[in-house]
Amino acid sequence: MNEDEEAIRVALTSLKTATGIPVTMYASLLADNRLQITQWVGLRTPALHNLILEPGVGVGGRVVSTRRPVGVSDYTRASVISHEYDRAIQDEGLHSIVAVPVIVQREIRGVLYVGVHSPVRLGDKVIEEVTMTARSLEQDLAVNSALRRTEGGRAGANKQGRVMNGAEWEQVRSTHSKLRMLANRVDDESLRKELEVLCDQMVSPVRVKQSTKLSARELDVLSCVALGHTNVEAAEEMGIGAETVKSYLRSVMRKLGAHTRYEAVNAARRIGALP
Predict the structure, then answer these.
(1) Which one of 89, 199, 237, 253 has the lowest number of neighbouring Cβ atoms within 10 Å?
(2) Where are the domains of the chain?
(3) How many helices (H) does the chain have, and how many strands (E)?
(4) What angle do CA 153, 154, 158 make, to 5 degrees?
(5) Amino acid 86: pLDDT
(6) Between 3-19 and 124-149, two packed helices, what is the crossing angle to 10 degrees?
(7) Residues in Cβ contact with 126 at an 8 Å cutoff, skipping those fewer than 6 apart
(8) Residue 252, C-beta contacts closer than 8 angstroms, at least 6 positions apart
């Protein structure tokens, strides 16, 4: 496996573990704008193995055309998608499906799917988890692309050191968020600033010049969101009110041009404000 295939495999496995959803899949965007399901976990039949999807059709086609997540609770009866692949879906026995775009440097690289074999609706928590996994995978693919652009490809990577895999990146991100929360609870101002400097050093290797300035409190809220906390949980962690958390989130989303809290986390990672 090359680095991208390994990153996708880790994403699919971790997503299944995190959500308990039985089926996870990844479809790569081909040069002619078709999608091909190239990796999967939990499929019962070969009906979807390496299936090629024509542009604009099915759940994946809608995801690519809108560049946004799409979910259907009854695939064969859903009105928001076309139905060229109903037979393959029926052969596999899938009912509910959620699909999220994987976008690297503003270009769609593929689509991340989860699905279940029973007629149940996949809720917002599942959609959020798939979206967060897609954002993590985007960062892994972006790192791999940057390494391939360096002279000597893998030789250049060896000189710079081993590239962390998806699970290791998640550990760094979790540590960064928890460190910010720890700093938030420290009364000693000088010690708190030292901890915040350490947080900055964790993202400084990938930091780019920021056109958007986020305050320390805004970063704290985003760190909580990155850990999967609700507004109430973030408020308890930070010792502030839930409405104040909402206010910080609105400010962050406005600054970053994000429509959801998880888009804001991804945007902050892209500018190097979060690992």
Answers:
(1) 253
(2) 3-149, 164-270
(3) 11, 6
(4) 125
(5) 93
(6) 160
(7) 19, 21, 98, 114
(8) 214, 218, 221, 222, 258, 264, 268
Residue matched to tokens 């086609």: 61
Q: What is the pLDDT of residue 174?
A: 76
| Torsion sign over Cα 111, 114, 116, 119 | negative
CATH node for 3-149: 3.30.450.40
- Side by side, which strands form the sheet with 107-116? 52-53, 35-41, 23-29, 107-116, 96-104, 70-72
CB 185 within 8 A of CB 220: no
CB-based contacts of 22, cutoff 8 Å, min separation 6: 16, 42, 115, 116, 117
Residues of the chain with pLDDT under 50: 1, 151, 153-160, 205-209
- Whether the Cβ atoms of residue 48 and residue 40 lie closer than 8 Å to each other: yes
CATH 1.10.10.10 fits 164-270, yes or no: yes
